[in-house]
Write the structure tokens for this entry.
Amino acid sequence: MPFPDLVEDAVPASTVVIGNGVARTPYAASSFFNISGMSFGALSVPAVLALSKGAKKAGIWMNTGEGGLSPYHLQGGADIVFQIGTAKYGVRDEHGKLSDDKLREIAAHEQVRMFEIKMSQGAKPGKGGILPGNKVNAEIAAIRGIPEGQDSISPNGHPEIRNVGDLLDMVNHVREVTGKPVGFKIVLGAYGWLND
Ligand SMILES: Cc1cc2nc3c(=O)[nH]c(=O)nc-3n(C[C@H](O)[C@H](O)[C@H](O)COP(=O)(O)O)c2cc1C
């Protein structure tokens, strides 16, 4: 028997419903494999397209990473988790603050099934990021909502989230505005503070 059939036979379809009873549009997600956030800009057009097509075939979701939603994520047909990074690329107003109008625009795509607030990432412990101006071409600028050709700073955290209560408030706010389930990504060195 060819190898791909063996793999398919060995992996039972498994889903988990997320947001039932709390989000207006719950999502039946694959509970097995999904694709972690990798931003458009870090990934090329063919890479985003290939991952989206593959995710669609496999019945799993792909996470946009913090670089916003590109046409290539949608074109491949995958279910999408939109990541809200600390610079709020794709959902920011002209001052870099979270824009409810932009959130609604993103959520209006049926393919966008959930949102993820990114607090931190293992490869960037305690640090923010900088996207050098020479990488900010017209397409990336438009998708991220930043000026073309200028350096763009991702702060090392969301300025409006300073404690657990703030985090839960933001989760709730994004869920109310978009109607979709909302989670968060965080790197934990210690977890005691979560109980406070
Ligand atoms: C090219 C690339 C881009 C990434 N971009 C993001 C990002 O935008 N947001 C994020 O939270 N993580 C980003 N990550 C981190 C991944 O989501 C993941 O956390 C990391 O690769 C660790 O998972 P792994 O051990 O399976 O590689 C990126 C990783 C790679 C390789």
